Amino acid sequence: MTISTERPPVAAIAALGLTQIIGYGSLYYSFSILAPDMARDLSWSSEWIFGALSAALLIGGLAAPLMGTWIDRFGAGRIMTSGSAIAAAALVACAFAQGKIAFVAALIGIEIASNLVQYGAAFALLVQIRPQVAQRSIAYLTLIAGFASTIFWPVTTALHAHLSWQNVYLIFAGLNLVVCLPIHAWLSRGVGQTRRRTGDEAARRVEPSLPPSVRRPAFILMVTGFALESFVNSALLVHMVPVMSALGLGAMAVVVGTLFGPSQVLSRLINMVFGESLSQVMLAIICAILLPTALVILIATAPSVPGALVFAVVFGLGSGLNSIVYGTLPLALFGSDGYGRRQGQIMSVRLVVSSMAPFALAFLMGYLGVSWSLSIAALLSTVAVGAFFAIMRLTRPVARPDTVPNPREA
């Protein structure tokens, strides 16, 4: 296997890092802070407002495969440019929504825009810019974007202390329109100019590492593993406070939240420095193992405070690596051709599962209790580990009968 001597596109990664921070911060992380006032203005309960978000996530997930196809056809840069405009329009529509139906429609627009400007599209853009170094580029990008929650939770809180949620959304719409849209347009033009200037060399493909006969089962295994991880991650993050309270660790939920973000960034930094020698399948296995390990630690040690702290760090490490793996593993296994379409399919399954996960865990906790519910979550995440191990077996070359050594030979 030839090691590429190309350098990652530093300017593009830095610019995309800024748009990812704004994209995730304005379209995703701000919602939980603004939701109580949204519910009050719409005369909804908190459960209903988050139910509306889940419905929007579900519809956004169903639309993701089509958007992935567009990314391959029209280029990720153009799609992200349009996505920034749609994001701004959807945030404005949400701010001016006069009733529940208009609000939910605008929320669906926000989730569709998210598919066009967040990780799936950004990873595809990096693949289209320089496919040979896209794995490193994706790792660098996730390191920068990992600060989205760290930046936007306090920014949203500070703005909301002086402004209504509607005005906060209008400011965020301006950020998407004034900052993100020009950056995405510049990157879109840059891809075309670079390829025209350097010819085929800059646009050479990453070839699949799997033979055609095993690509379909490998893809099914990969999506299954990602879906199970998304289910457990989403359910735990939404229900962190009730889970901690039921285990006698109520006050630790805040501490877990403060450790989770830095642990995500730390895992990406460690991977960036030491992960070059690891295959992407092995990285996926390590990432998958961290999730059930974190759950077992929490179940076994509760209500121990040190145990909860270890859980938070291990859980954050696994979640941080997961963001890298779901961008790099499909590229390593299936190559750069059709990468946008595959990202759309993966994103669709992840979003659909994530939209249902909080309700599923709440149902399990209501009928089985927290410990048994967490045990089921640990079992599901262990199945994800098995799926990635099965992919590793598929990546190993099969020896032909005539090349099998004779056991009688010395």
From TrEMBL:
<feature type="transmembrane region" description="Helical">
    <location>
        <begin position="138"/>
        <end position="156"/>
    </location>
</feature>
<keyword id="KW-0812">Transmembrane</keyword>
<keyword id="KW-1133">Transmembrane helix</keyword>
<feature type="transmembrane region" description="Helical">
    <location>
        <begin position="374"/>
        <end position="392"/>
    </location>
</feature>
<feature type="transmembrane region" description="Helical">
    <location>
        <begin position="168"/>
        <end position="187"/>
    </location>
</feature>
<dbReference type="InterPro" id="IPR036259">
    <property type="entry name" value="MFS_trans_sf"/>
</dbReference>
<dbReference type="InterPro" id="IPR050327">
    <property type="entry name" value="Proton-linked_MCT"/>
</dbReference>
<feature type="transmembrane region" description="Helical">
    <location>
        <begin position="308"/>
        <end position="335"/>
    </location>
</feature>
<dbReference type="InterPro" id="IPR011701">
    <property type="entry name" value="MFS"/>
</dbReference>
<feature type="transmembrane region" description="Helical">
    <location>
        <begin position="104"/>
        <end position="126"/>
    </location>
</feature>
<feature type="transmembrane region" description="Helical">
    <location>
        <begin position="48"/>
        <end position="67"/>
    </location>
</feature>
<feature type="transmembrane region" description="Helical">
    <location>
        <begin position="79"/>
        <end position="98"/>
    </location>
</feature>
<dbReference type="InterPro" id="IPR005829">
    <property type="entry name" value="Sugar_transporter_CS"/>
</dbReference>
<protein>
    <submittedName>
        <fullName>Arsenite efflux MFS transporter ArsK</fullName>
    </submittedName>
</protein>
<feature type="transmembrane region" description="Helical">
    <location>
        <begin position="243"/>
        <end position="260"/>
    </location>
</feature>
<feature type="transmembrane region" description="Helical">
    <location>
        <begin position="347"/>
        <end position="368"/>
    </location>
</feature>
<dbReference type="GO" id="GO:0022857">
    <property type="term" value="F:transmembrane transporter activity"/>
</dbReference>
<feature type="transmembrane region" description="Helical">
    <location>
        <begin position="218"/>
        <end position="237"/>
    </location>
</feature>
<feature type="transmembrane region" description="Helical">
    <location>
        <begin position="281"/>
        <end position="302"/>
    </location>
</feature>
<dbReference type="Pfam" id="PF07690">
    <property type="entry name" value="MFS_1"/>
</dbReference>
<feature type="transmembrane region" description="Helical">
    <location>
        <begin position="12"/>
        <end position="36"/>
    </location>
</feature>
<dbReference type="GO" id="GO:0016020">
    <property type="term" value="C:membrane"/>
</dbReference>
<keyword id="KW-0472">Membrane</keyword>
